[in-house]
Hints:
By secondary structure, this protein is mainly alpha-helical.
Amino acid sequence: MAAPGWPVERRSAIPETPMSDLQVTLSEVLANRFASNHARIRELAMPMSETQFWTKPFPYGNSFGHLVLHLTGNLNYYIGAQIANTGYVRDREREFTQADPPSRDEALKGLDSAVGMVVETMHAQSSEDWSKAYSAVGTSCSARLDIVLQCVAHMQHHIGQMVYIGCEWQRQAGQ
Length: 175
């Protein structure tokens, strides 16, 4: 017998969906999340000068530009090299220390390319692909879906830092 106030028969709030529809939905949601994260990074970068993009506004942390290089390397390695088989070879340390970095526009074009590859890779995954074994240096993720979710969360984490960097540059400019 059900507890007072509880319905006797419980129904799922999520309608039953054929697996093929779920796979399409999953691919679309993930592709859209990467694309919207990408758009947010570009939006945050646009008000910055070339100098602000590559300079740390605090004595700690990273510059906005080095975070862009880091996210580009992250996506190209964990999704590009390991899932899409692009052949990308990562130099993670250089993402943070490159003394002669590319221009802001070139760094953002690199991110554009990485996100474009990720979006295509999301759409190319079959229902079976999401649970395929996954292995890469620097992660304990054991399935493709796991690393893709980690990469989305990683982007979100660094977008938070980028927001903070942008706010500090605005504060310093007296805006």
